[in-house]
Write a structure and sequence with these properties.
The complex is a heterodimer of chains A (226) and B (249). With 226 residues, chain A is mainly alpha-helical. Chain A has a single domain, classed as Fumarate reductase/succinate dehydrogenase, transmembrane subunit (3 helical TM bundles of succinate and fumarate reductases), CATH 1.20.1300.10. Chain A contains 9 helices and 2 strands, in the order ααααααββααα. In chain A, β1 and β2 form a beta hairpin. In chain A, α1 crosses α2 and α2 packs across α4. Chain A starts with a helix and ends with a helix. The relative contact order of chain A is 0.13. Chain B is of the alpha+beta class and 249 residues long. In chain B, the strands form 2 sheets. Chain B has a 5-stranded mixed sheet with strand order 2-1-5-3-4. Chain B has a two-stranded antiparallel sheet with strand order 6-7. Chain B starts with a strand and ends with a helix. In chain B, α5 crosses α8 and α6 crosses α8. Classes of the chains: A mainly alpha (226), B alpha+beta (249). Chain B: InterPro entries: 2Fe-2S_ferredoxin-like_sf, 2Fe2S_fd_BS, 4Fe4S_Fe-S-bd, Beta-grasp_dom_sf, Helical_ferredxn, SDH/FRD_Iron-Sulfur, Succ_DH/fum_Rdtase_Fe-S, Succ_DH/fum_Rdtase_N.
């Protein structure tokens, strides 16, 4: 084994992969939530559709989107790998455990939270991402240029109360996942220092509430306004 | 005090093991937990039964030998070693559940005794410094800033009891290993083997079958010596910088 594969298959190397992919996905979420704010513009989706076209055709965005796919797949595979190792490290469990007195619920249930988010992601990608790329999307014309009307698909989808409720609940789980994952990723990378660790923790606490809340407000806004 | 002890009994490593409940009476609130266990064992001996085996040595909270997972927590309800835990932390009539540390790398030897030699092998892999033989060096020959000395000492207070492993949902030994790596990496004497130490100790930690860290912080919360999570971050830095710059290809 070369030193690279040896490092990446060590416990710390596996955690490094989790941390790096996790942080990249946090960056992705930031971009995703910012761009989607165009849904609130009230221009019948023009800005959103132009943005959606840019996001699916711009070469630089393409590279970022491939990195995002790799990060999602990597984060999932490495988490399965680590979870298997972690389960194997304690073949016989305790009859009584008071884990809630020494750690947060989200920190102990990142795998369950992540699995729920993954299920959400499959539904989400199938509904919008797949439709946008390969589905049968109606088109609109702005200033002589033709655009796929993703806004129509989104507003139509969020007429369904069940889907809206599912999205809002999924964002709750995302919030809990981020509440531990954000600061944890920095700790794994070894970035812990009294100068900036308090700032990382504060930003993490704000991020895990604000970003999922803004995401959740989108289906709610569409449901109640259209 | 009158108590019911639900104790894990296991003849040897191959045995399945099971809980056995024992009533004990006449327990003083001022007894340490281990003294209470002594009372139980005297009762068992008088009845001609096999006493409950448990690890203990100094009974002063400094050797790290006592273990026991008491009522769902390593070393019981207080953040201290089992020998320094007193019966006043419990209520009269209470049922106390006592289990051994649970980890693949800490196999049960008998009852509550587990084999923690995996920790020794992690230390043997690199938890040392090489020094020249010869005359005794002068005191304070190597200047070390007070702050650094204190921080290294804080890491060095780890007694290797294994409560971190017992508390961790992944049975991870990262708090222990990071404390041992930290105490030496911060000091000038530890610089010679610094990179090799990080690589070898972590390789050994993995080979022993400990889990990975999820940064839940359970280890630090339960550590009787208050070893902090910053040591784990430091170990990660030590390891990542060692693998990209050491001579081991």
């Amino acid at each position: 084994m070369s030193w690279v594969t040896k490092t990446l298959s060590s416990t710390l190397g596996r955690k490094l992969i989790m941390g790096l992919t996790g942080l990249f996905l946090i960056l992705f979420l930031t971009g995703h939530v910012s761009g989607n704010l165009l849904l609130f513009k009230g221009d019948d989706g023009q800005a959103f559709n132009i943005y959606a076209k840019f996001m699916t055709t711009n070469p630089a965005v393409k590279i970022l989107s491939y990195l995002t796919y790799i990060s999602i797949i990597g984060h999932v595979i490495w988490s399965i790998w680590l979870t298997r190792q972690n389960k194997a490290a304690r073949p016989v469990g305790y009859a009584e455990s008071k884990a809630s007195t020494n750690s947060t619920w989200s920190s102990r249930n990142m795998g369950i939270l992540g699995t729920i988010i993954l299920i959400f992601l499959v539904v989400h990608l199938q509904g919008f991402w797949y439709e946008m790329h390969w589905g049968n999307v109606p088109t609109v014309t702005y200033e002589g240029e033709e655009y796929k009307d993703l806004f129509r698909i989104v507003t139509f989808a969020f007429q369904n109360e069940l889907l809206v409720a599912g999205y809002v609940i999924a964002m709750g789980f995302l919030g809990f996942h981020l509440s531990h994952g954000f600061a944890s990723a920095f700790q794994t990378l070894g970035l812990s220092h009294k100068k900036y660790s308090p700032a990382i923790e504060t930003v993490g606490k704000i991020y895990c509430v604000v970003v999922p809340a803004v995401f959740a407000s989108m289906p709610l806004y569409i449901y109640f306004t259209s | 005090m009158k108590l019911t002890l639900k104790v894990w009994r296991q003849k040897n490593n191959a045995d399945q093991g099971k809980f056995v409940s024992y009533p004990v009476e006449g327990i003083s609130k001022d007894m340490s937990f281990l003294e209470m266990m002594d009372v139980l064992n005297e009762q068992l001996t008088e009845k001609g039964e096999d006493p409950v085996h448990f690890d203990h040595d100094c009974r002063e909270g400094i050797c790290g030998m006592c273990s026991m997972y008491i009522n769902g927590k390593p070393h019981g309800p207080q953040q201290t070693t089992t020998c320094q835990l007193h019966m006043r932390s419990f209520n009269d009539g209470e049922t106390i559940t006592i289990e051994p540390w649970r980890a693949k790398a800490f196999p049960v030897v008998k009852d509550l005794v587990v084999d923690r030699s995996s920790f020794d092998r992690i230390i043997q892999a690199g938890g040392y410094v090489s020094v020249n033989t010869g005359g005794v060096p002068d005191a304070n020959e190597i200047p070390i800033p007070k702050k650094i000395a204190d921080e290294a000492f804080d890491a060095a207070t780890c007694i290797g009891c294994g409560a971190c492993v017992a508390a961790c949902k992944n049975a991870s030994a990262m708090l222990f290993t990071s404390a041992k790596i930290s105490q030496l990496s911060m000091l000038p004497q530890g610089q010679v083997e610094r990179k090799e130490r990080a690589e070898k100790m972590i390789a050994q930690m993995d080979a022993e079958g400990f889990g990975a860290c999820t940064n839940t912080g359970a280890c630090a919360a339960e550590c009787p010596k208050g070893i902090s999570l910053t040591n784990i971050a430091r170990m990660n830095r030590e390891y990542f910088s060692a693998v990209v710059s050491s001579e081991n290809v």
